[in-house]
Amino acid sequence: MTDSEKLDLLISEMQGMKSEIQGMKSDMQGMKSEIQGMKSDMQGMKSEIQGMKSDMQGMKEKIDKLALGQLEIEKEIYILNRRLTDTYNAALDALGTSAENRRWIEHGTLI
User: Fold this and answer.
1) What range does the domain containing 78 cover?
2) Which one, 2, 54, 73, 97, has least CB within 10 Å?
3) How many domains in the chain?
4) How do residues 66-89 score in pLDDT, each as one tens digit?
């Protein structure tokens, strides 16, 4: 094999390697594009998650307000219940007093 043939063989091998390197470079560019797309998708998901987190925080605040409102309602119900009980007891006392007064008027004495 002559020196010229050896050089031609080396040049041919180098051109094959150059072609393979160009192919790998092209593949890497494709992967880079895909990674950029995934990065963009992940940013979108992150934004959606932040929105859901904000919504959940708002719901938590509303639930806390509902709990406070419920306590206020329970307090008001308790007060109303006491007032009704007091009114009922006053009505019973008045009924008893009127019955005693009626007996006193009718019989002239308390029994």
Assistant:
1) 63-111
2) 2
3) 1
4) 999 999 999 999 999 999 999 999
